[in-house]
């Protein structure tokens, strides 16, 4: 079924949702975006996503086409128009139409579009058995070059690492920063468990400040689990007891192998299972924050 897409000021048919070839979002990857889940018709962590979107836009001096409240209304209207109960919202703001040069200030108006659709999840079996990953040789963007906190339309760094993963027949790659510390996966944040303590790389190590990451940290603390933010090395990943990734699409997913090495017992561990279950229930309104 054709979708209704939010384009700038209102909903249009999918076939009419067109963007100019002179849009700098396309010409230069100049823009920002968010990926947001819808559970039972409700937009998940709407405030956190909208905050990150506005911060990303501010960081790259991109004028937002709508104020926050109107943006949320637009998302809700798009979800409703497509009767999305459990799905995914992709909200994109581009620099807009300009001349062929790099100068972003030739673009007079930012473009906004919002897609609400079904979501492609990892198969259930992967959650049960756990995922295999590799270490990418592609170094994560230097935080002083392209700040990884900015969720920009320029994902080539992540795509190059994703290609390495797919070439190795695994779904994800772990990216390390310029100093060799763990940054994140190509589209997910990294967590490990060792001696019942959870370790997460700080966002300064070069990761996006994941909305799922923040929720999982909150849920873990509520369970009385100790969480430590610290720089992690490849060796820390090799010797940990449990390893999992968090992200909007994946939620919480266990990792059981990295670079051909088995993590812990080679099965999804108990802390990972607990947090996956807690997150699953919280997202679906069955668990208090
Ligand atoms: N890192 C990157 C590079 C991402 O693109 C994402 C989102 N897919 C994440 C981490 C996870 O963030 P969130 O939990 O907000 O989806």
Question: What would you note in describing this structure?
Answer:
The protein is an alpha+beta fold and 289 residues long. It folds into two domains: 4-117, D-amino Acid Aminotransferase, Chain A, domain 1; 124-283, Alpha-Beta Barrel (D-amino Acid Aminotransferase, Chain A, domain 2). Helix content is 29%, strand content 27%. It is built from eight helices and 15 strands. Strands 7, 8, 9, 10, 11, 12, 13, 14 and 15 form a nine-stranded mixed beta sheet that branches. Strand 8 (172-176) and strand 9 form a beta hairpin. The radius of gyration is 19 Å and the shape is globular. 4'-deoxy-4'-aminopyridoxal-5'-phosphate (PMP) binds next to helix 6 and strand 13.
Q: How would you classify the helix and strand content by structural class?
A: alpha+beta
Number of strands: 15
Question: Which oligomerization state do the chains in this entry correspond to?
Answer: single chain
Main sheet summary = 9 strands, mixed
Concise structural overview:
The protein is α+β, with helices and mostly antiparallel strands and 289 residues long.
